[in-house]
Amino acid sequence: MIDREQYTPGPASGARVQKDRGQNGEEKWTLILVRELRHSPEKVWQALTDPAHLREWAPFDADGSLATVGATVKLTTVGAPALRVTETRVTRADAPEVLEYNWGGFDMRWELEAFGGGTRLTLWTNIGHRFIAMGAAGWHICFDVLDHLLSGTPIGRIAGPEAMKFDGWQRLNAEYAKQFGIEMPNWPPQAAQKS
Predict the structure, then answer these.
(1) Would you give the end-to-end CA distance of the chain in angstroms?
(2) What is the reported pTM?
């Protein structure tokens, strides 16, 4: 594992938001993140579906594989103030192209496209409007950790409250908020932020 202190996330990029209306006319926000990885779709697919790989980079732990349609898997959110376990059912698993499931009430759709000797990875997830910049910053760091893991230079998972204390997360949160034109909530409280 390389020294995490050497890791600095790049600028906010590869993210956009989409606003739709739900069945009852309510606003529905979707965060869409795109990242080009230097690894094959098969290798990225394994990292998205295998519990041992997920434990190294994702903001949740899985008690089973996400690679099979109909599989029921418990996802445990990393670093939640109280234990937060979501039982999910994989609704689509077209290896190594599309993976869909629900995590904590949020639809997750992963698309993998072979691109330039690697993979263009796209995540579509619905999220509350005021948390879009926070979500983008968190997933940005998770994707960086994933890329390091797949490159054989793991830096260890940076997710949940630990990520929010990370200087790079604070900068990304502000950059994504500006990019999306949204006001940042005062979270985490100033006392919890790293100086």
Answers:
(1) 26
(2) 0.90
